[in-house]
Amino acid sequence: MANFEPVLLANIQKPDSHTLAVYQAAGGYAALKKVLGGMSPTDVVELVKSSGLRGRGGAGFPCGMKWSFLPKDHPGPVYMCVNADESEPATFNNRILMELDPHQVIEGILIGCFATRASTAYIYVRYEYPTSFTRLEQAINECRAAGLVGKNILGSDFSLDIHLHRGAAAYICGEETGLIESLEGKRAWPRIKPPFPAIEGAFRKPTVVNNIETLANVPHIVNRGADWFKSMGVPSSGPKDPGSYGPKLYCISGHVNRPGCYELPLGITCRELIEQHGGGVWKGRKGKAAIPGGLSMGLFTEKEWDTPLDFAGPGKVGCLGLGTAAVTVMDETVSMIDFLHNACRFFAHESCGQCTPCREGTSWSERILTRIKHGKGRLKDLDILLSISGSMGIIPGTTICGLADGAAWPIKNAVNKFRDEFEDYIQRTNPAGYSQQEPAEALGLVELAH
Amino acid sequence: MRAEIEAFFPRYPTKQAVTLPALHVVNEHLRCVPLRAIPEIARMLELAPAEIYDTLSFYGFFKASPCGKVRAWVCRSISCALRGGEEVLAGLSEKLGVAPGETTADGTITLEFGECLGLCDYAPAMLAGNRVYKNMSVEQVDDVAARLREQAEGTT
Ligand SMILES: Cc1cc2nc3c(=O)[nH]c(=O)nc-3n(C[C@H](O)[C@H](O)[C@H](O)COP(=O)(O)O)c2cc1C
Ligand code: SF4
Ligand code: FES
Question: Quick one: pLDDT band at residue A448, thresholds 50, 70, 90?
């Protein structure tokens, strides 16, 4: 691992890494040529399946398997939606891929569309990524001029249109069916599944939704093979575990000396990431906690930093999962009350509002945290928070999408793992009434809301 | 604007899918989407005005009256907050004399809070127009405000 060769970030240090000329000089579009030169869509699906590539957008679903769910005899059209809405707090690796190596992404899209027989790809780019948008636009234009996008690509029977679609600053548009609704011109209310997008997605047609980083891996798998891909990462531990293979773009931010995006084989520990790559906790301080993979995934205590950041690791210490593998480090001075207030405020702001447990649960937890923060907390608020967080989400079966699970996990982890700190804070700031006193309003004092 | 919106039609199998692109076109020209634009967009897309408004109002993004020449989003999410993002937002708010969501009296700058802008490696960060402001601090608030004004002057 010491001499791990970057794969996805191999090009980004080069001047003009975003241009077709530089990409092709490094062997770019060779994988597409290989695919068009004699592979069938099924061959590509099988290859990606055998590589063990899992989705990098958060859910970790095996990519080849997802592709195999698309009907093979559908009259079409079939669509691909490329998820470039990257809005999970602490996550910015898709931005780096789009800004600095957009052709790698486009080659992945082309191969993915060939494999799934999609004829149009929409790249849904979050509004806040103007440079990504422009770089992709330039790259697509270069490809059109070079016969790499459009009709009869490189003289083959394969045709593909790629369009960019700009978001409007809403986190929920990253949820795959929220994205599809938003693309269709509606409010981004996630759909009840099934039907899954593979059967009925964009414009009611079979649709494959993939993350930018997932697709960026695909050309490398075609060029170097499934065994090469499987030589990186953590092998499957049994029939129920699809393993964690390949390179991963880890993001690290917060209280570290060197925030950034580091490409490493899946499975390094959170502590290695922080200490060897992020330059350690800043200001010579001690660490207290870390977000393991985007805010939705919950919280590691410092003692849990030795957890491997593979698909299975974070779950073993009570977190939701690997998520986007984006770590935010908190030093010893951080108040968990402030952390949780910030997290709850985010989810309350971003809930799309269609499921009552999520709409009410996220906004009430924000109000409770605001009240605790302002010195009006009661001990029983902690149990109310745990009860709210235990009852919203796909896991308890009460909501349509996973935003609510992502809202619940920081609450569960923070309150359970740092309960003493919450109790001390409440007793210290509200000594008169911390035990059982009812607040003036059931769940929040309006004047404290901001 | 009409021609710009119509140019999107061939990209999608339905006209409704042009809703967001159309709203962005109008917003880029007018720095808002005025209520009276809605029936016009609806007619172009063969939809009821309420359908356009339904989508528009879902996103807090489109405003009914014009934003400043520069719309500046200061991140308030966790990786920025840990490095002073909220203090920068409060400082800018005080310096510019507006709350987040408001526009300065001279109409040049609209201050907004943003949720994670995907710039956590540069925390605390701000996106103003297409420009990224990196690694800000409370001490730099005066300077940031001045740069925002300068940026607004360069914008038509
Ligand atoms: C609330 C919510 C937000 C999401 N945001 C994103 C996102 O910004 N980008 C992304 O790729 N996936 C996001 N996802 C996951 C997608 O629903 C979907 O699983 C993913 O795009 C599939 O691509 P992959 O299999 O290549 O990972 C989100 C999921 C939820 C529940
Ligand atoms: S869980 Fe929340 S965000 Fe997801 S669909 Fe329901 S209300 Fe919307
Ligand atoms: S948390 Fe501020 S840019 Fe990500």
Answer: very low
Last residue of a domain, one of A329, A345, A372: A329
Query: Residue B49: how many CB atoms within 10 A of its CB?
Result: 15
Domain boundaries, position A311: 246-329
pLDDT tens per residue, range A20-31: 999 999 999 999
3-class secondary structure, B147: helix
Is A240 a member of any domain? Answer: no
Question: pLDDT tens digit string along B58-74?
Answer: 999 999 999 999 999 99
Given A329, A360, A375, the domain boundary residue is A329
Same domain? A119 vs A186: yes
Query: Helix B85-96 to helix B141-153 angle, to the nearest 10 degrees?
Result: 60
Q: What is the pLDDT of residue A450?
A: 39
Answer yes or no: do A128 and B19 touch at CB < 8 A: no
Q: Please check whether residues B17 and B79 belong to one and the same domain.
A: no
Residue A3 is assigned to a structural domain of this protein: no
Q: Does A11 map to a domain?
A: no
Looking at the structure of chain B, the number of domains it has is: 2
Are the beta carbons of A295 and B23 separated by less than 8 Å? no
DSSP string, A243-287: -EESEEEEEEEESBSS-EEEEEETT-BHHHIIIIIS-SBGGGPPE
Inter-helix orientation angle A93-100/A212-224, to 10°: 60
Beta carbon of B74 within 6 Å of any ligand 3 atom: no
CB contact under 8 A, B23 and A346: no
H or E element at residue A208 = strand A207-211
Is pLDDT above 60 for B152?
yes
| B63 in a structural domain | no
Are A250 and A187 members of one domain?
no
Chain A: residue whose CA lies nearest to B76: A342
Number of domains in chain A: 3
Task: Evaluate whether residue B146 is within a structural domain.
Answer: yes
B78 lines ligand 3 (CB under 6 A): yes
Give pTM, 2 decimals.
0.96
Shared domain check, A215 and A252: no
User: What are the backbone angles phi and psi of residue A233, rounded to the nearest 5°?
Assistant: 105, -160
Binding site membership of A348 for ligand 2 (Cβ less than 6 Å): no
* A195 within domain boundaries: yes
Q: Tell me: do A226 and A253 sit in the same domain.
A: no
pLDDT for position A444 = 45
Task: Give the structural domain span for B114.
Answer: 70-153
Q: What residues does ligand 1 touch, defined as CB less than 6 Å away?
A: A 55-59, 61, 83, 85-88, 172, 174-176, 209-211, 214, 401-403, 406
Which A residues 271-330 touch B at CB under 8 Å? 291, 295, 326, 328, 330
Let me know if residue B137 belongs to a domain: yes
Residue A297 phi, psi dihedral angles, 5° rounding: -85, -10
B44 at interface of A, judged by CB pairs closer than 8 A: no
Q: Is residue B90 within 6 Å of ligand 3 at its C-beta?
A: no
Q: Are residues B28 and B74 in the same domain?
A: no
From chain A, the residues in CB contact with B133 under 8 A are: none
Q: Which residue of A has its CA nearest to B16?
A: A185
